[in-house]
Structures are given as C-alpha cells and as structure tokens.
Amino acid sequence: MTEAPREQTIRVANPADVAAVKAVTDAAYHHYIERIGVVPQPMEADHAANVAAGRVFVTGDPVIGLVVVEAHEDHLFLDNIAVHPDAHGRGVGRRLLEFVDTRARALGLPEVRLYTNALMWENQRIYPKFGYEVVERRVDGPYDRIHYRKRLT
Question: Which terminus has fewer CB within 10 Å in the chain: N or C?
Fold first, then answer.
C-alpha cells in the first residue's frame, strides 16, 4: 500500500502553521478586497487563536489549503475554506469540502452551514455543486452574505 501524497493529507493545524494559514488565507481572499470594498473577514481572523482552539485543518507541505470549522450543537459551521491560487484546479477545495462533511458526521452533526459574500459569485456556483442550498441572504455590518446549509444523510 502506498502512502497518499502529502498534499492530500488533511491534519489539524499546529502553532508552527499559523504563518502559513495567514499566508494562504490572504492569497486566497486578497483579490476580493477591491470587488467587495472591504477586507474579507477571513483575512482579519485571529489565526493563532483558531489554531490553538483546534478549529483549523490544513493540507499540503507546504500548506496549500485549509478549513476553519466550529462545532455547534446542531451543525458544523464552515467558517473559512481557502486554497492558495497556485493550487487551484488540483482538487484541493473538493477534498477540503469532503473533509468537512466527514468531520461533521464524525461529530454526529446532521448538517454543515456556511456563508459567503454575495459578491463572491464564484462560490455561489461551487457550493450548490457540493450539495449546499441557500437558506437566506442577510446583511451583517459591511458584509452582504448568502447563508448555505448542507444536510448530511
């Protein structure tokens, strides 16, 4: 049996990954600043605190993708998914989304929830392909967000 390529392994982030988590997040979201008129919330997150809380999972060596998740009583919240632009088209995002589903099921949670900025139209094409449905559109401060959920079977 051969070992999976290192970029396919998804593991919990550790303190040594904080700089890479910030770098990948910034690279993934920077191009949205001009479009949406504000810095995307994931770029302003406290990456060190998220890593310390065990909420961040990374893939790649060096890190090329990540998810930030938070377990709630009735769902897993996907707070952030980021793939470095240099890794686009390699299935990294798909593997990360599949990991989120697996994580939710392992925690006994029946659904995954997330939101995306309404001006990040690329995401509005991607999430439905992975089984997410729109729940609502809501303005939260400077952010116009579309909320999604995916019910797990």
Answer: N
**DSSP3 helix / strand / coil % (the chain, rounded to 5):** 40, 30, 30
Do 112 and 97 form a contact (C-beta atoms < 8 A)?
no
- Global pTM? 0.93
**Distance between CA atoms of residues 122 and 63, nearest Å:** 23
DSSP string, 2-39: PPPPGGG-EEE--GGGHHHHHHHHHHHHTTHHHHHSS-
Backbone angles phi, psi at 68, to 5 degrees: -120, 120
Distances (CA, A) of 135 to 82, 112, 115: 22, 12, 9
- From 29, 58, 4, 51, select the one nearest 120 (Cα to Cα): 29
Q: Is the pLDDT of residue 81 over 70?
A: yes
